[in-house]
Amino acid sequence: MLDYALLDALAAVVRHGSFERAARELNVTPSAISQRVKLLEERVGSVLVKRGTPCVATTSGALLCRHTERVQLLEAELAGPLPALPGASLQAWPTLRVAVNDDSVGTWFIDAIAGFCTQREMRLDLVIDDQDHTAQLIRDGSVQGAVTTQAEPVQGCRSTRLGRMRYLAVCTPVFHARHFADGVSRETLRRAPCVDFNPKDELQKRFMRKITRADIDPPKHWIPHVAGFLRACVTGLGWGMCPERMVAPHLERGELIDMLPGRHLDVDLYWQSWRLSIGWLDEFGLALRKQAAQLLD
Amino acid sequence: MLDYALLDALAAVVRHGSFERAARELNVTPSAISQRVKLLEERVGSVLVKRGTPCVATTSGALLCRHTERVQLLEAELAGPLPALPGASLQAWPTLRVAVNDDSVGTWFIDAIAGFCTQREMRLDLVIDDQDHTAQLIRDGSVQGAVTTQAEPVQGCRSTRLGRMRYLAVCTPVFHARHFADGVSRETLRRAPCVDFNPKDELQKRFMRKITRADIDPPKHWIPHVAGFLRACVTGLGWGMCPERMVAPHLERGELIDMLPGRHLDVDLYWQSWRLSIGWLDEFGLALRKQAAQLLD
């Protein structure tokens, strides 16, 4: 069998992005971690971690991490029938490492999974990324499951639909009077600043293309923060696409207006997770789907 | 003089993290961007960009980017007295690239700067990082200013105090009854799950050390998301340190309780920015300080 003391060290370095933090988690010195990873690299015959800030797995390193985390999950499952099994901490609080998009975490995701994690005593380790990019994280094995826009199953995973998030184009009444008094058109959209979450965020662009059938490149604020994005719209920095459920109270109070009622963007969300038949990963998926049915459209 | 068409391409690649997106911003083909960066690398005699996802500047690359952005800022300032100067887009919407900690963006920062950016027609490009790490971003030149916990000025920068954020240890009443019925002690803290923002977040650890004079390592959820972090506390996943202003309504409604009233952590925040005497960078600092005085303690 493989040497799991070495693999555990590797997985901790990649999970934490640093030898120091991995050492702290495993209660050993950083030099012990470094020796274990080096030894493993010698045995495998290739570099497994790119040293840097943060430390990142190479392709071979990622494969080994993925394998190790699966074994850890399977081990942790033994804690149910064999609670007295030594090996301790991981079993007491197994880790669910999941990739989720920012807007889901900002709206429905935590509420959907809190009960399950509390009951099962599972640690939640969220990786946040754009909804169009979370599938990549499950593909390279760095998470066990992902909330994603990709319907087609990633290899080795199963995919189920969670529901739909509706996005509205919103801005303040003052912003609207200043920039869109002549209507929402190619010309006015070109000059009005919009808010983008980050360079990966294509929602504003997609909306403009849908409305005008043109690629428009307005001045853009970049606010990679859900609450900050919403505040940027509410304070009149720019217009932006916000989840309908998030802006409902602001629309009601008249702080924001729907720029083009009826012209929304819908984003379908899917849950993809490893096809491993790990009991609680399956049960987590079930619980998530059930809650999502209530919290999403 | 240096060839600024090449430098502009380099800075765009580093800003966007990708040749494709840089090409889109500068309205040229990706291969044109790639040629410009390569030519610059040949002239300088060293690699300037580590190709990857995302593309990252090398040390020399970062120095050139920093220089280029400073020149762009100085050029943009000319737009005031010389509005008809050709060179266009950057002048119309100069970019303020600023590093801010998550909790500031989630509470006071956007409200503090929205008016200034709207009046001056400045694009905001936020880089979000932990408050103890934003100083690094200004040190390596990737941002023009930073909200940071570091009081001592970074080389080439000036530092001014913005105010204080107060953090309270909070959890739900149910969580408290389950985990802290016997008091908040070493023993109970060791078993109660807490919420950490990410591995860099030391607030929970610092609080436990303050209370117990011991290093305690409880099960930790990682929720790298301000709204998600708060929801994780409100839904009873764990206890966590939250900004007082953010949890005030939850405390009032009884959804959360202050675990140890009077035992908070205070974090002093500073604004550090380039000592360049760029008019609006100075004015931005002034506006920020003035607003922060009202929005922080």
From TrEMBL, chains A, B:
Alphabetically sorted, this entry's keywords are:
DNA-binding, Transcription, Transcription regulation
**Is DNA-binding found in the keyword set?**
yes
Note the PROSITE patterns from the entry: HTH_LYSR
Write out the similarity annotation: Belongs to the LysR transcriptional regulatory family.
What organism, scientifically named, is this protein from? Paraburkholderia solisilvae
The cross-references to InterPro entries, in alphabetical order and at most eight, read: ArgP (IPR017685), LTTR (IPR050176), LysR_HTH_N (IPR000847), LysR_subst-bd (IPR005119), WH-like_DNA-bd_sf (IPR036388), WH_DNA-bd_sf (IPR036390)
As recorded in UniProt, coiled-coil segments are none
Q: Which domain of life is it from?
A: Bacteria
SUPFAM superfamilies assigned to the protein according to its UniProt record, in alphabetical order: Periplasmic binding protein-like II, Winged helix' DNA-binding domain
Which molecular function terms from Gene Ontology are attached?
DNA binding; DNA-binding transcription factor activity
Supply the name of the protein: Putative HTH-type transcriptional regulator
Tell me if DNA-binding is a UniProt keyword of this record.
Answer: yes
Domain HTH lysR-type, residue spans: 2-58
Cited PANTHER family: HTH-TYPE TRANSCRIPTIONAL REGULATOR ARGP (PTHR30579:SF2), TRANSCRIPTIONAL REGULATOR (PTHR30579)
